[in-house]
Amino acid sequence: MTGKSESMKRLEERIIKCRKCPLGELRTNAVPGSGSYESKVMFVGEGPGYWEDQEGLPFVGRAGKVLDELLESIGLTRDKVYITNIVKCRPPNNRDPTEEEVKACSPYLDMQIDLIRPKIIVPLGRHSMAYILRKFGFDPEPISKIHGKTFEARTLFGKIVIMPVYHPAVALYRPQLKEELQQDFKKLKDFYRN
Ligand code: SF4
Ligand code: URA
User: Fold this and answer.
1) How far is the centre of ligand 1, averaged over its atoms, from the C-alpha of 124 (Å)?
2) Would you state the torsion angle of the CA atoms of residues 101, 96, 40, 153, taken in this order, to the nearest 10 degrees?
3) C-alpha angle with apex 59: 117 to 10, nearest 5 degrees?
4) pLDDT band at residue 157, thresholds of 50, 70 and 90?
5) What is the per-residue pLDDT across 5-29, written as a single tens digit (0 to 9) for each?
6) How far, in Å, is the centroid of ligand 1 from the Cα of 16?
7) Cα separation of 74 and 71, whole Å?
8) Nearest to 153, CA basis, from 108, 123, 193, 189
9) Is residue 24 in contact with ligand 1, taking CB distance under 6 Å?
10) For a substitution probing ligand 1, which of 105, 108, 111 has the most ligand atoms within 8 Å of its CB?
11) More confident residue, 157 or 27
12) What distance in Å separates the CA atoms of residue 15 and residue 123, rounded to the nearest whole number?
């Protein structure tokens, strides 16, 4: 095992046992993330839902099916990318995570980013967009305005491109936004290739 995958495994084990915030008491399973530690692209959702909590894996419910389709449309599969969330345990009734919960949990995401060193981060939905843009020094804007746009951040390990997109769950009830998601994924494909 490489140093990176050992560190990632150790981090995932810490997350699975974590009780740093109240969500830890309510979950069935924590959901650290899944996919390739060597991935150039990292997808960041909001938090586990019912099925993710049941299975301990990100995006395995209905929104996950949409994400699979979008990945497939650009020649990717989930084992080639890394997928995780801002909070690793399910907020009850799928409510938004509180500020305290995000504060408690986001250091894990920060460490995942530092270990994987992705070239592209794709925040899925507005909460993730807000967290990631702020983290890299940008002001969040309405997702309707900036989805599919790219932001270039400098880090200690080089340049990262951030491209927020709508959350795949919106595609389930708003066909217009599904088309926008498909368009944005085409852009992602071009970035991914270069
Ligand atoms: Fe720990 Fe994050 Fe789960 Fe809270 S949500 S218990 S901080 S892993
Ligand atoms: N929605 C999310 O934001 N994340 C998941 O893992 C599943 C649904």
Assistant:
1) 19
2) -80
3) 45
4) confident
5) 999 999 999 999 999 999 999 999 9
6) 9
7) 6
8) 123
9) yes
10) 105
11) 27
12) 20
pTM for this model (two decimals): 0.97
Q: Is 53 in the pocket of ligand 2 (CB under 6 A)?
A: no
Answer whether 118's CB lies under 8 Å from 42's CB. yes
How far, in Å, CA of 13 to CA of 91, rounded? Answer: 20
Over range 144-168, report the average pLDDT: 96
CA 190 to chain centroid: 20
Q: Indicate whether residue 59 lines ligand 2 (CB < 6 A).
A: yes
Question: Could you tell me whether strands 158-162 and 151-155 are parallel, antiparallel, or unpaired per DSSP bridges?
Answer: antiparallel
Superfamily of domain 3-193: Uracil-DNA glycosylase-like domain (3.40.470.10)
Whether ligand 1 lies within 6 angstroms of the CB of 83 is answered as no
Closest ligand to the CA of 25: 1
Percent of the chain's residues with pLDDT above 90: 95
Q: Among the atoms of ligand 1, which is closest to the Cα of residue 97?
A: 5
CB of 166 closer than 6 angstroms to any ligand 2 atom: no
Dihedral Cα 9, 193, 190, 165, nearest 10 deg: 0
